[in-house]
Every structure is written in C-alpha cells, then in structure tokens.
Amino acid sequence: MTTETQQTETHEFQAEIRQLLDIVIHSLYTNREIFVRELISNSADALEKVRYQQLTHPDMPDKDAPLEIKIALDQDARTFTITDTGVGMTREELGENLGTIARSGTKAFMSQLAEAAKKDVNLIGQFGVGFYSSFMAADKVTVRTRSFHPDATGWRWESEGKGSYVVAEDAEAPRGTSITLHLREDAAEFAEADTVKDVIRRFSAFVPFPVLVGDERVNTVQAIWKRSKGELSEDDYKEFYQFHANTGEDPYYTLHFTADVPLEINALLYVPQDTLERMGFGQTKPGVDLYCRNVMIMKSPEDLLPEWMRFVKGVIESEDLPLNISRETLQDNGLVKRLRKVIVGKFLRFLGEQADNDAEKYKTFYDKFGMFLHEGVRGDFAHRDDLAKLLRFESSKSEPGVRTSLTEYLSRMKDGQERIYFLTGPSREAIENGPYFEAFRERDVEVLYTRDAYEDYTLSQLAAFEEKPLISGDSDDLQLPGDAPERGGEALSDEQAGELCGWIKELLGEQVRDVKVSKRLVESPAAATSAGFGMTNAMQKLMATLNRDKAMGGMPMMVHLEINPRHSLVRRIASLKGENEGLAKDLAHALYDTAMLAAGLVSEPQEMVKRLNGLLEKAAGVEKSRIIM
Ligand code: ADP
Ligand code: MG
C-alpha cells in the first residue's frame, strides 16, 4: 500500500518483515550489541563493491571520497550514526533490501528463524537479517543513501520498526550510506564511545577498511591470510574466523597455506563447528571469498570450489586472477580451474592428515560433515578417489561406534577375496540379524555398514576402491571367497529345489524376477536380493518413495527370491505342495512376504497383512479362514 504526500511515500513492510522485526525486537534482547557488527559488515560489503566498481567506473560520484566507515555518536541526542562511502542504494534497491526478505520470506523460514533465535542469537546473521538488528537498540532508524551510479539521486528511508517505513528523495545525500539509530532509553550506552569501540575491537577488528569512532581509528587493516603462519596465533585465526563467518563460535579446523607454483595463492580455509544444513535448514551457501590484489572480487561465489565444499568458509587470494572475471565465467576460466585443483587437493590432504593425527577429532567432523564427503564422491568425479579415502564406516570388524576406512578394510581382506562388501540397515543389530549377513558371518568376511540409501548410492557410484569392486551384500552376485561350511542338516536335492523354485516363481508371478536356490543363506529360509541394475534394496526403496507421485502405485521392486534348500520350512513346503496345495501356497507367500520385510522393501503392506492374518487363523485353527490363492 502506497500513499503519496508530496514526495514522501509510506510503505507497509512485507508481512514477514513485520514478523521478523517482532522477533528481533522481542526475543533477541540479550546480546544486542551485535547490531554494531551487522551494520559495519554491511558497510564493509558496500565498500568492497565500490572498490570493485571503481575499476570500471572512474567517474562515479564523490570519486575521491576515502573508502572508510565512520561512526558518529551523540549522547545528548542519543544517536548512533554509521556512514560509509560504499555503493549506496537506488530507490529500487532500498525497497528490495530494506522492506522485503529476498529469500521468498516463507512461513517456514520465519519459524526456523524464531527457533534459531531462541537457541542462539548469533544465528540471525546466518539468516541474512542483519540490518533489522538495528531495531534491537533503536526505536527509529533513518537511512540516507545514494548509489554510485552517476545519474542516481539520493534517498532518505525512515522507520520505527513497526508496520511501515517512509521514503523520500534526498538530493543532498553523498555517495554511500549513512544510518542513524535513535537509541532507546535503555540502549543509551551505544552512544558512548568506549562501549562502541569495545564492541568493534571484539567483533570487527578485521574489517578491511578503516573504522573510525569520532576521529579515532579503531581497527587495523590486515589481510591475515597474506601474513606468514609463524607470526599468527590460534587466537588470530579464531578472531578472523569469527569476523568472517559472522559467528561467536571457534572454527573446528583451520587450514592456512601459501603456494607460488603453479599459481600464486594465499588461502585461509575454515571448517565450522557444525552446519545448519544437517539440521534441515536448507542448502548451505558457499562461504569462501575470492580476492585479488587486496580487492574482494567476489563474495562467496558458487563455482569457485566444488559444490560439496560449500560448508567451508574462508578466503582465497590469487594475484594471477584477472580483476574483471565474472561469476558467469568463473566455472570455465582456466586459471580458476587450476586454482581450484590446487586448493581442493590441499584441502583433501589436510583432512587426511587430520584423520591420521587425531582420529577422535576427525570422527566428530565426520559425524557432522560426512554427508558432504559422500556427496563429493557421488558428484565430483575429479576428486572421487581422494574423497573415498576420507569416508568412514562401521563394520563387522569394528567395535560399535568406531568407524573404519576403505584403506583399512583392504588391509584386512581375506586371501582370495576380490571384492569389498557393504550392507545397509537402520542399526548394527538390524544388519547382523538380517538374512544377508549370514553368508559373511559364516566365511568370516568383513562387511562395511552403510547408514542409508544415500551411502549405498555413494559406494555404488564409486564402484571400486583401489581396483577392488564394491558390492552390496544384498546383491545377487556376491562372489564370496571360499566355501561356507555346510550346516543345517539335509538339503533338498538339486532337482527338488529346482522344481520348487519354478513352482514359487509361477505363484509369485511378476512380483519377483526369479526364484533361485541360495548359496548364501544359513539360518533364514529365504531372502530377497536386489536385481535392480546395480541398485541396493535400500536404493530401490528410496527410488520408489521418491517416485511415488509419478508412477501409479510405485515401481515394482526388482528382486530375486533366494530360498534356502536346507531350511526345514522350505523342505516342508516342497513336500506339502502335493498334499495340501492351499497351505503350501500360503506358506510360500509368507516366505516371500517375510523376505521382503527383512529387505525393507514392503511399501504397501495391506495385501501382506491379509495373507499373514489368513495364515495365523489357520495356525490357530479358527473356522472361517481366508486363504489367498
Ligand atoms: P545481508 O547483509 O545478509 O544481505 P542485511 O539485512 O544486513 O542482509 O542487509 C540487506 C541488504 O541491504 C544488503 O544485502 C545490501 O544490499 C543492503 N545494504 C545494507 N546496508 C547497506 C549499506 N551500508 N550500503 C549499501 N547497501 C546496504
Ligand atoms: Mg548484512
């Protein structure tokens, strides 16, 4: 809604912004000093942009204005004013940036934000609501701004942080942005120089532009990534991380390196403590900035590093890059490709060293970021083999809760074993008690335990490690080394077994691709093995779930039913089919049902429940039994 009185326009905030302001004002009352950091960081962003624009727009307004941030305080008027000579904003940009939430402002976002705000006020920076934090300390905020575009005029924006804001032309505004906070009575301390300087020293020491409070410069400009490792302390790295990632947390891993060949590179990379993505907050945005000759040429570009590295934060600087490189050409630029290769290689080696040197610490990292390494193995062909070395799995030879690597698995392989085996399941116990594990237990062959269909997918994409094929333990064709000891008493003859298989196949029809005599089963009567084009059962199940809306009734599962010719139940079915065909059929159906259940492949249990109930009624000798033919 817009009302025009001369040149002043009143606008309603987007509903989500009103909600946001409500959260900001009411639930973020503690720690409100972070507004200082948020405003300085916005000014620094605007200055980075203008420094970059200066390269191509030598005639921008106020072209000689020094690139700096000035904070002016007035205790009598109780105001805090921050002024920068950055890119400023046009009328449209003002409306977009300080009136709406770009990221579609959904309800879900707001409730996530409310949740996050309850947990940790530092999270709001990550949600990109920085500017609105000024309403934590102010009951009125005035913005004067003018874009660097030569024909742009200036604007004045003002709001009390309730329902609306006003905008009016302000032709006198110099290039850049000036934001005045009319402080609440209980926030008067932010008009005192000592308080403000203290906050800046704590949170904004690394801003790469001068920050002045009155006439005093409070920060010292330093491109920490260009200094030598020897002169930097852990605290220096930590402080820079906190500034760069806009967080109060310590970094989990820090990697600082310099290279001269084949490219000149200074890089400082951090792994955070955790990732919001893991907790369901949507996909993490990349967090590594690209610098060249002291100019940030791109803030957190998408294609600088492989997508799976999006959890990494930090800075990369290379003197060799052209300043005019664009986001569009980043992916294909030859220099960037080489840069990427060096950096990803370093990072992977670094993680490998961390895993070797402090396995405990690596384990916690893997708990939180393992999903990104898996994603990398699946999608980043160039680094697949090195990434695979970083994967960890529990296994039948590891203690519960302890993970092993593929390399360690290889070192323990049995004589004659040519393949690496894995099995998925909701827990160790579930895997070890399932039918697929029997063959491995009997032969004492190690099995890696994957945690879900996505991990199965990782290993089937990887296909082989050090030339040893990776095979799911529920696949059709295991090629296990050695023979299993024959146990479990007498077996059906080959002929009897073959005949039974044919009879069951006819009974089950298209539900199974084939029915076979099992060489793997020991205790279980039957198992459903995956016959689905290299997919594991878990992957089939996942695909069926994902495709549910598309294909009516879902896709049929591609399985082979293997039957155990030594199992007494199987032998009984073979003999019953001549005497009491109805019961034999019920039992054969039940064999299939329980095998599918153990495989986790039952998506529509109604039919199965009916059949099993019929069988139970029979077993209980209840009169009116429903026999499914
Ligand atoms: P974020 O910084 O995460 O984008 P903010 O709420 O802090 O979110 O700022 C919203 C947007 O407003 C910024 O992205 C920027 O476009 C604009 N903005 C804020 N402060 C300034 C400033 N001092 N100069 C120019 N633009 C600014
Ligand atoms: Mg911001």
Spatial shape:
elongated
* Count of extended strands: 23
Can you count the helices?
A: 20
How big is the Rg? 32 Å
Share of residues in helices: 25-40%
Ligands bound, unique? adenosine-5'-diphosphate, magnesium ion
Major β-sheet annotation: 10 strands, mixed
Mean pLDDT across residues: 88
Which parts are unreliable, with pLDDT below 50 for 5 consecutive residues or more? 1-5
How much of the sequence lies in strands comes to 15-25%
| Largest sheet: spatial strand order | 1-2-7-6-5-8-4-3-9-10
**Structural class determined from secondary elements:** alpha+beta
CA-CA gap between termini: 68 Å
Detailed description of the structure:
With 629 residues, the chain is of the alpha+beta class. The protein has 20 helices and 23 strands. A hairpin with a 4-residue loop joins β6 and β7. α15 crosses α17 and α18 (568-579) packs antiparallel against α19 (581-598). The chain is elongated and about 100 Å long. The termini are far apart. Bound molecules: adenosine-5'-diphosphate (ADP) and magnesium ion (MG). Adenosine-5'-diphosphate (ADP) binds at residues 38, 42-43, 46, 84, 86-89, 97-98, 128-131, 177.
